[in-house]
Amino acid sequence: MHTYTDVSAVMSRALAELCLERLAMHAPLDRSLTPDELSAAAGLTVTEKGIGTEEALRLWEHVLAPACLSVDHPRYLSFIPGAPTKAAAAFDMLVGASSVYGGTWLEGSGAVYAENQALRWIADLVGLPEGAGGVFVQGGTIGNLSALVSAREAARHKRLGPPPARWSVLVSDETHSSVKHSLQVVMDVGVVKVPGDERGRLTGAGIRARLAELPESEIDGIFAVVGTAGTTNAGVIDDLAGIAEVARERDLWFHIDGAYGGAGLAAPSVRPLFAGVEHADSFIVDPHKWLFAPYDCCALVYRDPVLARAAHTQKAGYLDPVTVEGEWNPSDFSVQLTRRARGLPFWFSLAVHGTAAYSEAVEQTLRVARAGQELIEAAEHVRLLVERDLSVLIFERIGWQAADYALWTARMLAAGVAFVTPTSHAGRPCTRFAIVNPETTVNDLALIIDSMK
Ligand SMILES: *Cc1c(COP(=O)(O)O)cnc(C)c1O
User: Fold this and answer.
1) For ligand 1, is residue 140 a contact (CB within 6 Å)?
2) Plot region of 159 (φ>0 → left; ψ -120 to 50 → alpha; else → beta)
3) 318 and 184, same structural domain?
4) N or C end: fewer C-beta atoms under 10 angstroms in the chain?
5) Residue 348 to residues 340, 345, 433: CA-CA distances in angstroms?
């Protein structure tokens, strides 16, 4: 298994050939199968003697892969899709073949050096100072969790006197589920919900009004506020400048979740909507969403990495030799130790194409989103529900109930036309387009809107 033989050579070539084909093709949307369907088509694949390269590859190509939706299909517009560049997707193969340990400088200095330059581009887009830095982690969930753990640790360190009755964090209704889950379930920290404005945005004024209602004992334990730069459901950016002001007055850690929308920082046409982002103490963006990297990849950046290091550096006899003063160990900045150098595919593509190409690709999706908004506004059977900030359009089909959306979604997917799932807004069923793929066209959107007549 570990020696490179003629057999491994044949297998590697066959695999590489499949990779090249997938990179070159416009993959069909595909669809999910039931466990019974898969078991009938694929049977038992893990056996004592092994099924061999040919059969395993055949199963993948003809049975298993077609049972996975292609998130990079231009009419996959649900959740937040992905749209890796060819350079990023191709380099991901090389990362897999390279046995690089991305947790420490000692073991992965070259990879960490490259990743840190990609992180620096993001820190520059945010407007963070020279010393800012962080790590690429698995996804926004782990990025948000790691940042909030750092925030609580910093609050513990600077607190004089006994701990509060309960640590807690200010969020809004639109704050991503992963943040609330991390706080309440993983960290056992309270969540103080602040009502949003008419577009659902968390604002400085909203936080002030909410704090005015709370007893001092509850305010005492609040250590952070989470702003969202591009909500998942509606793509709306919170009042970051207003939140930053309250955070400064109250000495709160300001975390910004830009998992989806942070990519908009690269687009001059929407950059002003992010005013105040430069006050973040920590910031995340998922390159696997709107920055064209393959799964899975989240960039986590801290204003002051020293605070994160204090929270996350693990101590053990066997780890001490790699914990060298002054060296940049990615494992010091998040809740994970062993790490794939998962920022490398993103770095490679950024290095190859340059940052201007990224700005243009994000602008392209924004142009399509703007045109899509016009289509929705011009059509009589649909209505936009939230004024658009970025590349999410949330809208309803006038007269439809939840069951109508569900049927339509299933029909469109079964026909291989589009993947557009139902959602809800203010308690009403509706649907949305999340446009992050530069290959999605206005015609794609028009076709889907027409199908709802
Ligand atoms: C997608 C998303 C997350 C979660 O990120 P994962 O990469 O799925 O873990 C968090 N926040 C926002 C705003 C998101 O859109």
Assistant:
1) yes
2) beta
3) yes
4) N
5) 15, 5, 29
Same domain, 317 and 432: no
Q: What is the pLDDT of residues 1-17, one digit of tens each?
A: 999 999 999 999 999 99
The share of the chain scoring above pLDDT 70, in percent, equals: 99
CB-based contact 334:137 (threshold 8 Å): yes
Residue appearing with tokens 């996975």: 68
In b/e form, how buried is each residue of 367-405, taking b as 16+ CB within 10 angstroms?
ebbeebbebbeebeebebbbebbbbbbbbbbeebeeeeb
Residue 430: closest CA among 390, 392, 387, 401? 401
Would you state the pLDDT for residue 226?
Answer: 98
Ligand 1 atom 5 nearest Cα: 140
Ligand 1 lined by 92 (C-beta under 6 Å):
no
CATH number of the structural domain spanning residue 266: 3.40.640.10
Assigned domain for 2 exists: no
d(CA 351, CA 346): 9
* 408 and 321 fall within a common domain: no
- The pLDDT value given to residue 317: 79
Enumerate the β-bridge partners of residue 302. Answer: 133, 282
How many Cβ atoms are within 10 Å of 122's Cβ, its own excluded?
27
Q: Could you tell me where the beta strands, DSSP code E, fall in 286-366?
A: 298-302
pLDDT of 320: 74
Q: Are residues 318 and 389 in the same domain?
A: no
Tell whether ligand 1 has an atom less than 6 A from the beta carbon of residue 228. yes
**Domain assignment present for 259:** yes
Ligand 1 contact, 224 CB (< 6 A) = no
Q: Could you tell me the two tokens for 349?
A: 């593509």
